[in-house]
Structures are given as C-alpha cells and as structure tokens.
Amino acid sequence: MSSITFTGAFIRNADLCRPKEGGPFARIHLTANLTKAVRDEMAWEELPDCLDSGKLDGELNGKAMILTPNADKLAKHEIQLECSEVNDFQMFHVRNKDGESKRMELRFSARCNEDGAIGIIEQYIRKIGDAPASLRITYASQQKLPMEPEKAEAAKA
What pTM does this model have? Predict the structure, then answer.
C-alpha cells in the first residue's frame, strides 16, 4: 500500500451523489499545495510560471484519506474516511493583486463510499472551516503489465 501527503489541504465543498447503479457516495472537492513531492509521486513535470491553469493526468485508487488540521488546537478534529478514488486533478496559479505568482494550487476530487460521510464532512467544515491541514491518502499502486510479445518486439525495433 502506498501513500501520498498533500500539504495546505482543505475541503472546498462536498456533494452527495446518487448514481443510477450502486449506492450513494460523497464526492469531496479538495484544494492543496502543488509541491515537488506531489509532482514527483504523481509523475508530473514541473509546470511553467506562465501557465495559469490546466488539467493534470492521473488517478489514485484510494483506500483511505486522513485529514489532519495543522494547528495543534484543531488536530483533535482529524477525520478518517474510506476513499475509493481520487481524480480530476487541476492546477491553478494563484496570483496576488499585482499579478505576481504567490503559489501553485492543486484542486481535485475524492470519492467516499463510507456511510455518513457527508455528516462527518459537514461537522469537520463547521469546526475547521478552510484552515490548512495535512491530507494523507493511502492507495493501491498499479502494477505495470508486461507488453504483449508482438508489441515488445516492435518497441525494440
């Protein structure tokens, strides 16, 4: 089992989704810092300063997410939720009023199938708001599949 940690994370909002098939789930929309450690883990190249926003490739087959507020007084409000997938990664360049770059921000979604997740998220937001937190997601690593013999031979040529 692998894990990735996002810093400066907070919940922007959450939706209760009811698909045609299967049970309801919570879609959690998150924001975090786009750090070098995250870029390396997700195999994303360094992004140029001139790029204001864009979609990023990648998806995590999540198992769990743990959101721990950074402030010592708020850390007791940590939440842990089952998380089946994390996707829809987008980067945004946050700029100050003068147009100078302040930071790179990462926005993404997590799917949570746990019963009562929306209530847990609601209570977290009421207590924590958008105070920065550390978000650790454990996920299953995708094994690389061997190439078919014909394709392997073609790749060598």
Answer: 0.84
**How much is the pLDDT for 52?**
85
Residue indicated by tokens 């209530």:
119
List 11's β-bridge partners, or say none: 30
Give the Cα separation of 109 and 13 in Å (integer). 10
Q: How far is CA 123 from CA 14, 32, 117, 119, in A?
A: 12, 20, 10, 6
Q: What is the mean pLDDT of residues 137-156?
A: 69
Q: What whole-number distance in Å separates Cα of residue 114 and Cα of residue 26?
A: 8
Dihedral of alpha carbons 31, 70, 40, 47, sign? positive
Residue 150, phi then psi, degrees to nearest 5? -65, -40
* Segment holding 120, helix H or strand E: helix 117-128
Buried b (16+ CB within 10 A) or exposed e, 59-83: ebebebbbbbbeeeebeebebebeb
- Residue-wise pLDDT for 13-71, tens only, equals 999 998 888 889 999 999 999 999 999 999 999 888 778 899 999 999 989 999 999 99
Angstrom distance (rounded) from CA 84 to CA 67: 15
